[in-house]
Design goal:
This protein is an alpha/beta fold and 266 residues long. The chain has one domain (4-119, 177-253): Purple Acid Phosphatase, chain A, domain 2. It contains 7 helices and 12 strands. The protein has helices spanning 18-34, 56-69, 87-93, 125-134, 137-144, 148-168, 178-187, and strands spanning 4-8, 35-40, 74-77, 96-98, 102-107, 110-115, 192-195, 202-207, 213-218, 226-231, 235-243, 246-253. The strands form 2 sheets. A 7-stranded mixed beta sheet has the order 4-3-2-1-10-11-12. A hairpin with a 2-residue loop joins strand 11 (235-243) and strand 12 (246-253). Helix 1 (18-34) packs parallel to helix 2 and helix 2 packs across helix 3 (87-93). The protein binds manganese (II) ion (MN). Manganese (II) ion binds at residues 10, 42-43, 79-81, 118, 197. Keywords: Cell inner membrane, Cell membrane, Hydrolase, Lipid A biosynthesis, Lipid biosynthesis, Lipid metabolism, Manganese, Membrane, Metal-binding. It is a peripheral membrane protein. Mn(2+) 2 binds at residues 43, 80, 116, 197. Its EC number is 3.6.1.54. Its cofactor is Mn(2+).
Length: 266
């Protein structure tokens, strides 16, 4: 069987959500059979306090990932929820942690940029300031030396604050900035930009001043249903459900099936 690349983002794994965990493990089993590589584009975990504070649940996930990454290469780019995920965990999970904000990939004569996507949301100025602050090495060094109970409380506080402020922000501000997308696509003359973060799964054409045609594929977050991108000849964005120990694709979106109202929000 021909093997494909698989790409996921925004799984938001958490111990209290057994359903998503089950879907994720079934997905890993599928990739083990059909994949030649796996790219995880951030927010794999809903929250990350530090590699020194692993729960049994997180260790179990690491073991499952290690089983896969011993067979095919797995890559991880951090999201805004798990940006503190470090080398210790990467080693446990066997994946390669990409420290840059994006991966430039050439595959089947096409050029791809893979990223979490939060850096494209340049209209959300308070978020970009926050991001810069928490990614500052000095801030992270300070954080690492805090007592564990303080880390718990701080993380909880930040999540609640982010939820509250996001409710006040407009939908447009929290989406990607079109100019940021075009600049990026133009710079490396890419064919596909693939990201998550916004939880707005869809396929968009990127209109560029030159005749170059590019697409932006947005992965969705996982809830009752999940999303992945599979690349053989062309990339396909696939929504799926799971149960009875199997993954069932529901919808497939690719440049071949492009139409604007593919996604009806449920
Ligand atoms: Mn995110």
């Amino acid at each position: 069987m021909r093997k494909s690349l698989f790409i996921i983002a925004d799984i938001h794994l958490m111990e209290s959500n057994a359903n998503i965990t089950e879907g994720f493990l079934l997905f890993l089993a599928k990739v083990k059979k059909e994949g030649s590589a796996l790219y995880i584009l951030g927010d794999l975990f809903d929250a990350w306090l530090g590699d020194d504070m692993l729960s049994d649940y997180q260790k179990e996930i690491a073991e499952q990932l290690l089983e896969l990454s011993q067979i095919i290469p797995c890559y991880f780019i951090a999201g805004n929820r798990d940006f503190l995920l470090g080398e210790d965990f990467a080693k446990k999970a066997g994946f390669k942690r990409i420290k840059k904000e994006s991966i430039l990939l050439a595959y089947n004569h096409k050029k791809y940029v893979l990223m979490h996507g939060d850096t494209l949301c340049t209209d959300d100025i308070p978020y970009q300031k926050y991001r810069k602050c928490v990614n500052n090495p000095l801030v992270q060094l300070f954080y690492r030396h805090l007592p564990k109970y303080v880390k718990y409380r701080l993380a909880k506080h930040l999540r609640e604050r982010s939820k509250a402020t996001n409710q006040k922000k407009s939908q447009a501000i929290m989406d990607v900035n079109q100019q940021a997308v075009e600049l990026l696509a133009e710079k490396d003359k890419i064919d596909y930009l693939i990201h998550g973060h916004t939880h707005r799964p869809n396929l968009h054409k990127i209109s560029l001043p030159t005749n170059h045609l590019a697409y932006r594929m947005v992965l969705g977050d996982w809830e009752q249903k999940g999303w992945y991108i599979q690349i053989d000849e062309i990339p396909q964005l696939i929504q799926f459900t799971w149960g009875n120990k199997t993954i069932t694709p529901l919808k497939v979106l690719s440049e071949a099936t492009l139409f604007p109202d593919f996604i009806k929000r449920e």
